[in-house]
Design goal:
The protein is of the alpha/beta class and about 350 residues long. The chain has helices spanning about 15-30, 40-45, 85-95, 105-115, 140-160, 175-185, 200-210, 255-265, 285-305, 325, 335-340; strands at about 5-10, 35-40, 50-55, 100-105, 120-125, 165-170, 190, 220-225, 270-275, 310-315, 315-320. Bound molecules: 6-O-phosphono-beta-D-fructofuranose (F6P).
Length: about 350
């Protein structure tokens, strides 16, 4: 029997509660552990704040979006931050034997540093962006894709009615997974992703060719992290600032694209930024199941001393992989997937 800490860090994501519920249910029921949930990510560890988690207190949350523990982008390793010592003190204050942080590159990056310092951790990979290496999918991604696809379907009918170009901006900081999946599912006429810097002239020529061949509307899906090729800086006027991990705040490329496309082609153009709608609300069945499988595997790994690892999906199997593997580089879009989507452009 051990006392296990849980926290959720970084942006929230559909399926977080499914993971928490699964860790506690198996951990209490099968292994006889006790659980403490730190609130608001690493802020809860550093500030000694949280709640005891029991089978009772984690009932009825499987289908709920967000996280019952709250989340934040607090970074213990920021300049002048408390670092390993601060985290260790926070864990000791609550008598934690093993910590299960649920998060993306930043939260698991902190977990990796703690593991190197000898603190027992087991990570669970979370991000709607699906850009974490070491796992085929993160939970939350499929829900975000469905939300984006539903939005594209709706925008399709209004674009068609008005003979407009509609630019749909989806999340995806380093990688275009959401754009490629939702664009493919929604029949996009162009998909712009961070992995392939775009040329605005080429995008406009493509739209002109499509309209010349009789189509009277177009749907362009763009990742928030997509960038124009050299010489075409469309970023002016976009939201600025960085978070505690040094990431630029993204969002707004669609504003510039709307203006550029309309000016260059003469086609009436509108844009929609889906933003945090993609992260909110109930997880779909896939993410509930994946989150549950990850939670069960994480508490088993914590119990078996399989520390310094992250649970991961490989094919259809849930396995554990070294945290270092997940943190090396972001997992970029599979070129084959993009090429498949491209068949349907135009
Ligand atoms: O990391 C996931 C993500 O959804 C990114 O795609 C996006 O840039 C970021 O979170 C925005 O998060 P927030 O506005 O909560 O800081």
């Amino acid at each position: 029997m051990a006392r296990i800490g849980i926290l959720t860090g970084g942006g929230d994501c559909p399926g977080l509660n499914a993971v928490i519920r699964a860790i506690v249910r198996k951990g209490v029921g099968v292994h006889g552990h006790e659980f403490f949930g730190f609130t608001y990510g690493w802020a809860g560890v550093l500030g000694n704040e949280g709640v005891e988690l029991t089978t009772e207190s984690t009932r009825g949350i499987l289908h709920r979006g967000g996280t019952i523990l709250g989340t934040s982008r607090t970074n213990p390793f920021k300049e002048d931050g408390p670092g390993v010592d601060g985290v260790r003190a926070g864990l000791e204050a609550r008598g934690i034997d093993v910590l299960i942080p649920i998060g993306g590159e930043d939260t698991l990056g902190v977990a990796g540093k703690l593991a190197e310092a000898g603190i027992p951790v087991v990570g669970v990979p979370k991000t709607i962006d699906n850009d974490l290496a070491g796992t085929d999918f993160t939970f939350g991604f499929q829900t975000a894709v469905q939300i984006a696809t539903d939005a594209i379907d709706r925008l399709h009918t209004t674009a068609e009615s008005h003979n407009r170009v509609i630019v749909v901006e989806v999340m995806g900081r380093h990688a275009g997974w959401i754009a490629a999946y939702s664009g493919l599912a929604g029949g996009a006429d162009a998909i712009l992703v961070p992995e392939r810097p775009f040329d605005i002239d080429e995008v406009c020529s493509h739209l002109r060719r499509r309209h010349d061949s009789g189509r009277r509307f177009s749907i362009v899906v763009v990742s928030e992290g997509a960038t124009p090729r050299d010489g075409h800086d469309l970023s002016a006027g976009l939201s600025q600032g960085t978070d505690a991990f040094g990431h630029a705040r993204l969002g707004g490329i669609a504003v510039a694209l709307e203006r550029e496309i309309e000016e260059r082609t003469g086609f009436e153009t509108r844009m929609t930024i889906l933003g945090h709608v993609q992260r909110g609300g109930t997880p779909n069945a896939y993410d509930r199941v994946l989150g549950t499988r990850f939670g069960v595997a994480a508490v088993d790994a914590a119990t078996n001393g399989d520390h310094g690892k992250m649970v991961a999906l490989r094919g259809t199997e849930v396995v554990t992989v070294p945290l270092s593997e997940a943190l090396a580089e972001p997992k970029l879009l599979d070129p084959e997937l993009y090429e498949t989507a491209e068949v349907f452009f135009g």
